[in-house]
Design brief:
Helices cover 57% and strands 15% of the residues. By secondary structure, it is α+β, with helices and mostly antiparallel strands. A hairpin with a 2-residue loop joins strand 2 and strand 3. Helix 3 packs antiparallel against helix 4, helix 3 packs parallel to helix 5 and helix 5 packs antiparallel against helix 6. The N and C termini lie far apart (72 Å).
Length: 225
């Protein structure tokens, strides 16, 4: 037997000797599941109700437990760890994420699973608590003026001056996002910020001659100014 064979056998035996008992495995998975349930509760309480998905929230708990199990498996054998990397590399997820915050919860669940699988339970608890505090504090920060989208449908394209005068009285900064001129008239999409709910603005624009429809919708995103 050559020196390389001895070294290889010694290395593999040293890794395989790290066997886990059923009690330790169950304990780690249960702790990961409890922290996953905590993440479930935080997502349910702080998540945006318009984008809330119960199935996604349940998957956070399962993802935490599965990740912890994978880390436990990788620790037992280097051969299994290499095979696990190869197997997971062919997995493709094509589900669109509607809210960027969902990515935070996904990373949170995976990270907690990895930390629990490594046996660092205290670290997982501290990280979860600090992440919760950060999310709560940032969610409580007030938004001075929410960006909104103004949609104006007119029968003619000579309303720019009147429209500009009215909008200037309600919003200091605004930007025309789209201007569509067809045979039926002019369609404008304007991004702006108003101090109130914009009811008076919509009413005044509707009084402009040639305007037959006005809509003001909430723009849940970042303004360009």
């Amino acid at each position: 037997m050559s020196f390389s064979d001895v070294l290889k056998k010694s290395f593999l035996q040293g890794v395989n000797a790290n066997e886990l008992t059923m009690g330790s495995i169950a304990g780690v998975i249960c702790v990961a599941g409890l922290i996953g349930l905590y993440i479930f509760a935080v997502y349910y309480l702080t998540g945006k109700k318009a984008f809330y998905s119960r199935s996604f929230n349940i998957s956070l708990v399962a993802l935490t437990m599965i990740t912890a199990g994978i880390i436990l498996t990788i620790q037992t054998s280097v051969v299994i760890s290499l095979g696990m990397v190869g197997a997971l590399s062919i997995v493709r997820f094509r589900t669109a994420v509607k809210d960027p915050m969902d990515l935070i919860y996904l990373l949170w669940s995976i990270s907690v699973g990895i930390i629990c699988g490594a046996g660092l339970i205290k670290v997982a608890v501290v990280v979860s608590l600090l992440v919760t505090v950060a999310i709560m504090v940032l969610e409580l920060l007030p938004v001075l003026h929410t960006p909104m989208i103004l949609i104006v449908n007119a029968q003619s394209d000579n309303i720019d001056d009147k429209l500009k005068d009215i909008i200037s009285g309600y919003s200091k900064n605004y930007k025309v996002k789209s201007r569509n001129l067809t045979q039926s008239g002019l369609d404008l999409i304007i991004e702006l910020k108003v101090k109130d709910d914009g009811a008076d603005l919509v009413r005044r624009i509707k009084e402009i001659e040639g305007v037959y429809a006005v809509s003001l919708v909430l723009h849940d995103g970042e303004a360009a100014y």
